Amino acid sequence: MSGWISNFMNHPATYLKAGWVQISVSNLIVILLMLTVFALAIFIPFPNEDSGKGKK
Amino acid sequence: MWTARARESWQKNLPIEKLIPDTQPAYVVSWIYVFGVLTIAALSVIIISGLALAFAGPAWYHTSDFGHWVNSLHFWSVQLFFAFMVIHLWGKFWMAAWRGGRIKTWISGAVVFVLSIATGFTGYLIQTNFDSQWIAYEAKDGFNSAGIGAFFNVTNLGQMLLLHVAFLPAVLGLLTLIHVLMVRKRGVVPPIDANSSNTEASR
Lengths: 56, 203
Known about the structure:
The structure holds two protein chains of two kinds.
Chain A: H1 3-9, E1 15-18, E2 21-24, H2 25-43
Antiparallel strand pairs in A: 1-2
Chain B: H1 2-13, H2 16-19, E1 24-25, H3 35-56, H4 58-61, H5 65-94, H6 103-125, H7 130-145, H8 157-186, E2 201-202
Antiparallel strand pairs in B: 1-2
Helix pairs in contact in B: 3-5, 5-6, 6-8
């Protein structure tokens, strides 16, 4: 690896702490990305030739 | 004759029209219904790349560029597999997908989820690098304190390797197949507010 990726990854993870809750920034980013994809999957309309009118 | 009874039971519960449908209910026209099949697609990449790793061996995937690439493909498809599976789980949880006699489908999905964690964990243990050594020696105390270290010894590379490449994928594949067959039998779960006008068939 080179450049900013190696600078970003070649050190111990940064952790966020709030009382007994502790999470690494990288894990938090992954969870937030998954929640974003989940929300987009619900709200973005699915392209469909039949427009969901139930034709066969 | 038991074969006749088995055939009749299969035809009654899962006729070919249900097994390979050409239409779906209109409410399936939503991105949230795509994540089950995305999970299966990621699982397919995991199995194919895993077979390549198993046949070519660590002397290949630890030393050659293409071996590193396939090794990375195996790893990253696992990351996508879990992300897709968890989003699929969220979607099914919030639509209470166990409704309409689908409780066994829900339970089988939950079991597949737990088994996937065990399979992923054994995968991390057989990387044969300092990362896997560290994970094993951190995990052994936990398993020993739970009293299962004698049967499931995370520092036993041979045991973890065979569990990861033989036993767990076989059980996982079989349960995934059963899960999908149960979905096909009952059909995809409708949204909670679905009525007869939007449960008609759509391609």
